[in-house]
Amino acid sequence: MDNELVKRLVWSGLLAGFGALASIAAARVAATVFRRIYGEDPPD
């Protein structure tokens, strides 16, 4: 794991993975809040 390129690739993968998870979580929370406020599903 001393190769700088491998470290950068691992970092990029981790960043992309956590970013995707955060995006999914934020969309779910926003949809839940919208449903509670308006009592209907959010628009697509």
Indicate the percent of residues in helices.
Answer: over 70%
Round the mean pLDDT to the nearest integer and report it: 95
Number of strands: 0
Poorly predicted regions are: none
Structural class: mainly alpha
What is the element string, with H for helices and E for strands?
A: H
**Distance between the terminal alpha carbons, to the nearest Å?**
44 Å
The dominant shape is rod-shaped
Query: What is the beta-strand fraction?
Result: under 5%
Helix tally equals 1
The major beta sheet can be summarized as: none
Radius of gyration: 17 Å
Account of the 3D structure:
By secondary structure, this protein is mainly α. The mean pLDDT is 95. It is built from one helix and no strands. The protein is rod-shaped, with a radius of gyration of 17 Å. Helices cover 80% and strands 0% of the residues. The termini are far apart. The longest helix is centred in the middle third of the chain and has 35 residues, at 4-38.
Any chance you could write out the topology, listing elements then pairs?
Blueprint: H1 4-38
